[in-house]
């Protein structure tokens, strides 16, 4: 197998790495690679910061291990290779009346990455996290393949474990039946944060997500657009054609006045009375995927995303966060609020019962201090940040956010005593130190 030295980056394009990558096409080649050179596996590099990087070291790119192997249409069990993209599953299996139980905001994420980061979706308050619907998976280890099920202690170390238990080869996923091949989506304006949280707490919709105007202040603090969705039957509208961003946006494109103007216009695009629209599945679940390489909108320096979840009892900290962001003038148009339930699949999984807030920041000089301030607020409130998005958390903050870290690290270190699977993220936060 040929190793090729390449430069690559996380989705935020701020953290970058140079190292050797191999791209096996068969499970047997993956076996050979892990026997000869144990190293972490990476997928489509949709982690925003350094979770998918291994600077000056080797990594296995699973892009070619992307086959859909089988679907039991009676039981709804799908078997796929770890490099299979979730969007491909929706495109091929959705018309047959099945969907993954959990889908994140991008269809370019791979199944292996979805397990490794235990992703969540717009229905977390009902369905929990991705890893909770994995029936079994196969790890490729130097001593051979190992099938892992929820009964195996290694399962909870692998789900949400950031690839630290070895490359995943295949996974068996429990699917859900759909009511039809489209999404029926109700959209409404929400005037402020209190109204938002009340709507989230009382919504009976299967899927809910809120866009937040992170530039709003005063009485409009936390205003936005709430979407509630259900699968349904009917005519399938054409999916919106994807467009590619041809060049990196100039620095001024996301200046404070431009972002505030855009957000105000975007907020008013929904009539005051609200509306219900029909969307293709992909347009609802993966709204930004139709803009290929949308990360280029942030310019050559890239961007950071802060995402936290805070307990229901600490909802007022969201107000403090949004006030700080709104006054800073650093926010971009991309900010999302969701309600989460208690479901989580692994020891290091991010999801927990509460409210999750995600905000993108252009990589300006002032951004790191702002994000560190938000991280500190989340930790003090008893919340945590999402390590798939994190760029600025400190090692001393991790155990307060992830109390099972030491137990997880013991399992990882017993399986991989030389730290061969460690990535830049794991080293930066000393995640496997005891």
Question: How would you characterize the overall build of this protein?
Answer:
It is a single chain. By secondary structure, this protein is an alpha+beta fold. The protein is built from 13 helices and 20 strands. The chain has helices spanning 27-36, 86-93, 111-116, 124-127, 153-158, 193-202, 256-268, 281-285, 316-328, 367-380, 395-401, 405-415, 424-428; strands spanning 4-9, 16-22, 41-42, 58-61, 68-72, 77-81, 98-100, 134-141, 144-148, 168-177, 182-190, 207-212, 224-232, 243-244, 275-280, 291-292, 303-310, 335-340, 354-362, 384-385. The strands form 4 sheets. It has an 8-stranded antiparallel β-sheet with strand order 15-11-13-12-18-19-17-20. Strands 5, 6, 7, 8, 9 and 10 form a 6-stranded antiparallel β-sheet that branches. A hairpin with a 6-residue loop joins β1 (4-9) and β2. The longest helix is centred in the C-terminal third of the chain and has 14 residues, at 367-380. The model has no long low-confidence stretch (mean pLDDT 94). Residues 14-178 form the FAD-binding PCMH-type domain. InterPro entries: FAD-bd_PCMH, FAD-bd_PCMH-like_sf, FAD-bd_PCMH_sub2, FAD_lactone_oxidase-like, Oxid_FAD_bind_N. This is FAD-binding protein.
Task: Offer a few descriptive terms.
single chain, 434 residues, alpha+beta, eight-stranded antiparallel β-sheet, six-stranded antiparallel β-sheet, 26% helix
């Amino acid at each position: 197998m040929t190793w090729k030295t390449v430069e690559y980056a996380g989705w935020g394009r701020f953290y970058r790495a140079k190292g050797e990558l191999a791209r096996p096409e068969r499970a047997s080649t993956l076996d050979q690679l892990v026997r000869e050179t144990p190293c972490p596996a990476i997928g489509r590099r949709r982690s925003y910061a350094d979770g998918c990087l291994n600077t000056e070291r080797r990594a296995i790119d699973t892009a070619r291990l992307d086959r859909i192997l089988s679907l039991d249409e009676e039981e709804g069990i799908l078997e796929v290779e770890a490099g299979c993209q979730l969007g491909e599953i929706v495109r091929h299996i959705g018309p047959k009346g099945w969907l993954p139980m959990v889908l994140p905001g991008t269809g370019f994420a791979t199944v292996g990455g979805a397990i490794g980061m235990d992703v969540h979706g717009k229905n977390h308050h009902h369905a929990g996290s991705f890893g909770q619907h994995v029936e079994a998976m196969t790890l490729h280890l130097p001593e051979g393949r190992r099938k892992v099920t929820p009964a195996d202690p290694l399962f909870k170390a692998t789900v949400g474990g950031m690839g630290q238990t070895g490359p995943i080869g295949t996974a068996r996923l429990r699917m859900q039946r759909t009511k039809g091949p489209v999404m029926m989506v109700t959209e409404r304006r929400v005037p402020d944060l209190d109204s938002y949280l009340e709507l989230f707490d009382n919504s009976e919709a299967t899927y809910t997500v809120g866009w937040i105007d992170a530039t709003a202040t005063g009485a409009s603090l936390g205003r936005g657009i709430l979407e509630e969705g259900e699968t349904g039957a009917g005519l399938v509208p054409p999916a919106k054609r994807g467009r590619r961003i041809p060049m990196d946006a100039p620095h001024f494109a996301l200046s404070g006045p431009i972002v505030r103007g855009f957000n105000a216009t975007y907020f008013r695009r929904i009539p005051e009375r609200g509306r219900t629209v029909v969307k293709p599945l992909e347009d609802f679940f993966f709204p930004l995927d139709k803009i290929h390489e949308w990360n280029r909108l942030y310019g050559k320096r890239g961007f950071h995303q802060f995402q936290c979840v805070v307990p229901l009892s600490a909802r007022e900290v969201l107000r403090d966060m949004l006030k700080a962001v709104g006054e800073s003038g650093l926010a971009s148009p991309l900010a999302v609020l969701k309600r989460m339930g208690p479901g989580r699949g692994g020891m290091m999984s991010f999801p927990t019962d509460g409210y999750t807030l995600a905000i993108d920041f252009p990589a300006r000089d002032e951004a790191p201090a702002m994000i560190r301030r938000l991280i500190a607020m989340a930790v003090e409130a008893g919340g945590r940040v999402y390590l798939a998005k994190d760029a600025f958390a400190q090692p001393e903050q991790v155990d307060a956010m992830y109390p099972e870290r030491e137990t997880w690290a013991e399992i990882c270190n017993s399986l991989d005593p030389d730290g061969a699977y460690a990535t830049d993220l794991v080293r930066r936060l000393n995640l496997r130190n005891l």
